[in-house]
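Quick log. Single chain, no ligands specified.
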Amino acid sequence: MTADVPDADPGTRTTVPLEALRQAARALRGVAVRTPLLEVPSLSATLGCAVALKCEQLQPTGAFKIRGAYTAVARVAREGRAVGVITQSSGNHGQAVAFSARLFGLRALVVMPASTARVKVAGVERQGGTVIFAGETRSTEQLSRAQEIAREEGLVMIPPFDHPDVVAGQGTCGLEILEQRPDVDTILVPVSGGGLLAGISVAVSGVKPSVRVVAVEPAGAAKLTAALAAGEPRTLERTESMADGLLTPSIGSFTFPIIRRVVREVVRVTEDEISAAVRFLRREAGLRVEPSGAVTTAAMLVGRLHLAGPTVAVVSGGNVDPDLFDRLAQ
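-> predicted structure:
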């Protein structure tokens, strides 16, 4: 824990105190769902320990991102700094920002790559957000365009992960896991820019430091592996995976120092392993999960982890293109 004041200017903070997560949790009541832990008997039997899935695909926007987006947008609304917000996103964060902005009567713009799955574009539009395309694939083009529009139109940027309010909001997922399963031994977390992983790291370090936190990323987008090897964030020249929510080319400069204090293990999973996990979750648990949300299950199924005690795997989202899901679930 730190002596940071949760309500300080977000731009001045270098970490996130546990109290900020608790404040975010109180503010999220009635907005985000306290998602259940779903036990999967066949997985527990295979691994020899109790395994439960933290079902974040049940959130109002279909992914955990509502936690951080609402926390950040609420501050903008409370301070009356702008008539609208803007972000760059490959889908889930954009939907969550649009959803949150609508609750506060704020305009929301989301800059997305042209290759974004139609189901995620439609999700932003359904929540009242305006989509602007920039670049064919996920790259710095989206951020540059969002910053340009923000300056021109007086909008406030809501970063997808590298922001203390976003990390505090995502960390409420970790608080819930620790409350729902006080004896948890290991938590598996998908990682892209690191907002969820950093938030859960704050929760664990503040409440139960003995918990083992394991990050999971696609082999084709191993930005945390690269950062841990270098001791600082590194930008990958290319990222490629069906797990489109995990394609950020670099771990966040704000999230990485938080993560490295807690996370010692990263599991990389292949495309075939992710596909198998999507099928497994459909068959064994009846869940419709996007590839990004299935990576933690993939990490368990491939047997690269020794799990000895109660384990929780975060299923981060369920916003998946119907055709892709049907092909994977066959």
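The beta strands are 37-39, 51-55, 84-88, 107-112, 130-133, 156-157, 186-190, 212-218, 265-269, 311-315.
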